[in-house]
Amino acid sequence: MFHEAGSGRAIKRNAAEDRHAQRAREFFQPFEQELFRIRMAMVSAEVDSALDSTGGVDEIGRPLNHT
Length: 67
What we know:
Layout: H1 15-54
């Protein structure tokens, strides 16, 4: 809940503000999901690249792929 600075009272929001906030969340959700998917793909590519560059072993020669 949002609070006014120096006050123990919550800021009152009206129904129109609540509906607007909900519509904004619904609008941006697909973009956020796609951004998350892209970030996970980038991380996966970085991990794969790191495994390829090390030959799949750590600094002391232990295999990194335990599957």
